[in-house]
Structures are given as C-alpha cells and as structure tokens.
C-alpha cells in the first residue's frame, strides 16, 4: 500500500475537474489501509470543507471516529449521512455499530437486519450482527449468527477476511469494517472447532 499511497498522493495533487474528489477519496481509503488514520482524517476534513453533505465522506469520517472511540461524534456524522443516502450499506453498518457501542443493541439489530436484507452476501454485516449479539450476551442470537455465518460463507473466505483485517486493513471487499476481531474471533473459533468435532463423530458413527 505504500506505493499506492505515493501514486494516489500525486494523482490527488494533479487531478482536476470531476476527478479531483474521487482521487482524493481513493487516497483516504489507501491511507486507512496503511495505518495512517490521522492523515486520512485530515484529508477527509479537507474534502468535507468543500462537500459538507457528501454521504460517503461523512460515513468514512464516522468510521474513523468510531475507531477513535468518539461514538457521539461518529453518530452525528453518520445520521447526516443516513439522511443523504439511507440505502448505503457502509453508512447503515457503521451507524449500527456506533449505536451498539452506546448500548442501543436492539436499534443496532434493526439497522443491521435492514442492511442484511439488501446485501445478503456481505460478510461484514453478519459479523456485525454477531458482535452486537455478543455485546448483548444473547446466547440464542450468538448461536444463530454463528450458524448463519459459517453456513453462508466458506471457511477460506472468513479466514481471508480476518487475515486482512489483522494486517490493519479497514476497507475490505468494498466495505468499511467497524467490527472488532478480539470480540468475534473467540466465539467463531470455538464454534468452528465444535462443528468440526461433531462432523468427525458423525463420520465415525456412519463409517
């Protein structure tokens, strides 16, 4: 990503007309995946100075504020973004996770379920639902989302996501990622292990 940051920085410097904001925003995403969140936030502030109601910029700032633990400020930006574009998955996911962090778990669940219906093949949504259920300590929901996640997504796909996220990548497969690995992974790992043991016992029983 370091080379990408270099090239995108130069592209953002020389870009003109309708491409200037796109080049600058691509640089923001690249900076986020290069452990340079403070610089990404500074460039977002510059973009918002010219387009204060841009939902994409507002959502990305909300995401970075969540990363900083500034949930009230994040919610303020994400609610404005939601008014501008209520169907954007990144806006809805990040708004839900900010609400979850504030203890509004049922409201977060509603937003995530709405987004899941629109984006049924998005792994981040299922992980966000799982994290919200874990925060609630709702065992039934935890088991349900563990089952759904491992049923709908291949193990290699789940593994790829967590490997990339562990590297510090915050924008994976076209989605901003506000979930916390340390909350989700212990539950997911135990569930996969138990499922493998049950499958092994079943195979032995029927062999």
């Amino acid at each position: 990503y370091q080379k990408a940051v270099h090239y995108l920085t130069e592209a953002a410097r020389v870009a003109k007309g309708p491409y200037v904001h796109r080049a600058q925003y691509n640089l923001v995403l690249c900076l986020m995946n290069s452990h340079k969140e403070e610089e990404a936030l500074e460039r977002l502030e510059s973009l918002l100075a010219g387009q204060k109601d841009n939902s994409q910029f507002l959502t990305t700032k909300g995401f970075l504020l969540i990363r900083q633990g500034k949930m009230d400020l994040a919610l303020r930006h994400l609610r404005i973004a939601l008014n501008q574009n209520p169907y954007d998955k990144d806006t809805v996911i990040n708004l839900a996770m900010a609400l979850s962090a504030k203890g509004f778990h049922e409201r977060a669940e509603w937003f995530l379920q709405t987004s899941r219906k629109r984006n049924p093949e998005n792994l981040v949504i299922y992980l966000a639902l799982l994290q919200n259920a874990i925060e609630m300590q709702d065992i039934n929901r935890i088991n349900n989302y563990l089952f759904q996640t491992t049923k709908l997504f291949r193990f290699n796909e789940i593994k790829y996501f967590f490997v990339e996220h562990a590297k510090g990548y915050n924008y994976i497969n076209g989605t901003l990622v506000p979930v916390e690995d340390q909350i989700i992974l212990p539950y997911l790992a135990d569930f996969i292990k138990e499922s493998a043991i049950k499958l092994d016992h079943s195979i032995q029983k029927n062999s």
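The beta strands are 171-172, 175-176. The CA atoms of residues 53 and 177 lie 22 Å apart.
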